[in-house]
Structures are given as C-alpha cells and as structure tokens.
Amino acid sequence: MTSVLVTGGTGQLGRRVVRALAADGHTVRILSRSAAAPPVPDAGVFVADLRTGFGLAEAVAGTSAIVHCATDPRRSRAVDVEGTARLLEAARDAGRPHVVHVSIAGIDRIPTEYYRSKQAAEQAVIRSGLPWTVLRTTQFHPFVLQLLDRLTALPVIPVPRGWRVQSIDVDEVARRLAGAVASGPAGRLPDLGGPEVFSVVDLVRDRLRGTPRRRPVLEVTVPGASAAALRAGANLVPGNPAGGRTWREFLDSRPSHRLQAR
C-alpha cells in the first residue's frame, strides 16, 4: 500500500482512478483547484493549482506515487506544459515519487496545439529524473458521444471522410493506471485502444437511428495535416485493444439511451 496523489482527481478519469486506488488499499489524496467532495470518503483533498504552483508542495509531500490526470485543452500551455513542470519540480523536492502519466494515442502524429502540449508534458515526465510510467490511450466513450451529439444536432451533418475512432471505457483506463501504480515504474507502456474501431460516419448514422432526429449526412474531406493524420488512423491502436465496456454496452448503460430505444 502506498500514499498516492491523483491530479485532476475530481474529473471524469481522475475520480475513477481514485476509486480504483482506494479499492486496492492505497491511501489516496486528490489535487483539486477547489475543495470538492472526494469520490471516496477517506480520500484527502488538497487545494492546489498547477497554473500557479499554489499548494503543490503540500499536496505531493509524503507521496509514494502521483497519477497525473489533470489536463485542460483550453489552457494546455498553462496546465499541461507549465503545470506539469511545476508538479514535477515539487515532486523532486519532496523525494522520488513514481509519476504515472496518462496521455493520448497519436499525439506525436496529429499536429494540433493541444496534442503538442500533451507531448511536451510526456517529455517533461520522461526527463524529470523521477521514476515514471506513461500510458497513452484512445479517446474515452463519453467524449466520442459528446462529439456525436453535437454533430447530430446540426440541420445538415458534415462528417469528416475517412475518420475512425476506437473509443475506450474510462473505467478500464482507471484500472490500468491503478495497476501501473502497483507494478512500479515501467517507462512507456504499450498504447491502449478500445475494443472496436468504427468509422465516424457509421457512428453518426447509428446515433441518428436511436433518436427522433432526421438529418442528412454529408461526408466531407477535411483539409490540413491533422485531418490527414486522422484519415491515416494516427489516433488508433488496432494492435492493442483493451477490455472493459464496448461502445454499445456504454450506450446501453445510459438512461437517456434506454429511453430513446423504447
């Protein structure tokens, strides 16, 4: 058993990591920008801010491991790049905790600003001098559903031609990260993808069939290097599919989907 700090511990992934670590018997503390209620009763909440460094020293003091889940696509430079650097500096000052960092499949092949920031954060962890593990995964089921619902709300649905997704169960990723804490530093783990690969256009059409909406679907070729990388499958991990809930099982678990299907 160890004392583990989870950054972003009240977020979609972080709160599941907290539960998985607590179930494994670890003492868990959460780094959060506000004094939010923890996902498990015994978890301690440390109010801290990666953007400024406020509270980081107190949060990391006495920890054996840090699971770094905090991220912000809107402020990726401040949070993912500079914030990770501040976290690692505080960790070095506090000892040599094992840093487990979760990242995204394809960030070195898809040239977006956010992905460049994620890659910079990875490199900071690798070069930190601390024991480390990095796990890249494909996008989570809820994120893909959110994108689909935005698309299907449009009067005419433009779908990027040739794009595919391999979404993954958030709970499965949380279990893998908790397992990485127990296993100890392992460097970069094999990239992890969801159990199935779907074309975006098929998911859009399937989503429309599950709702009263009737919308024309128009496949379009999106220009640019990032779009080309996605057409080439840079976001996919077909060689290492995960377990956990499939896309259909995820949809069926949602009350709103069950009502629509009746």
Automatic annotation (TrEMBL):
Residues 8-140 form the NAD(P)-binding domain. InterPro entries: ComplexI_NDUFA9_subunit, NAD(P)-bd_dom, NAD(P)-bd_dom_sf. Gene3D superfamilies: NAD(P)-binding Rossmann-like Domain (3.40.50.720). It comes from the Bacteria. Coiled coil: none annotated. It holds the Pfam family NAD_binding_10. GO terms for molecular function: protein-containing complex binding. This is Nucleoside-diphosphate-sugar epimerase. The lineage of its organism: Bacteria, Bacillati, Actinomycetota, Actinomycetes, Geodermatophilales.
